[in-house]
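Problem: given the chain below (250 residues), write out its structure.
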Amino acid sequence: MTGGRVSLVIPTLNEAAALPATLAHLKELDPPPREVIVVDGGSEDGTVSIAEAAGATVVRSPPGRSKQMNAGAAAAGGELLCFLHADTVLPPDYLAAVAAALAEEGTALVGGRATLTGPRGPSRLTSLHHRLKTHYAPLIYRPHRYAFAGLRLLFGDQAMACRASDFATVGGFDERLPVMEDADLCLRMNRRLPPGRGRVRELPEPIETSDRRVREWGVVRANLTYLAIAWGWAYGAPADWLGRFYPDVR
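Solution.
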């Protein structure tokens, strides 16, 4: 199984500032992806023309990250799907690592180790919190699944990847969720696939993603917001209510 069997799906909405660098780095992937699908939710800037000029397949969708990623998955022809944020840069060997991990029958979903970074360098505290959250959130929320079923909670800036067949089996992303759709997919993969098939793994491959939200909100507000949304989701807070605390930042 090679990286060339991976379809990359990038949801966008007014990402003209971030998208060029992301698409440029994708040309360095070895092996390259089968295809790059940019799913646009109605951008009013140059996002679509940038994607087309870079050779990506452009799919238009109603706005909403879950809706857009599901639309991209439906258009994809790859055996594997990798969902990438428009402000995230992958290491050159990432697709090879994804393909190797998903070749293991018990592994259903993987993501890299994200570092939030920007003009001033990495946001170390928030990056550490993200890495710890992959473990402490399922350990608190579903400790038996963390200990015995391989549950970890991955998030969108970790470039989550899975088999297209498994994605279809669990019904893709929940389009009712404006936030935490990524963690929800982890949980459903872990629960709904046959026993021994739903392991969720964090790979050691380093991923860089923009710290623009941290710069906009500040370190304290950003981390408290991440924590509050995670706890609210875990204990059944309404999705629309949670979405109010996580506006778009560009």
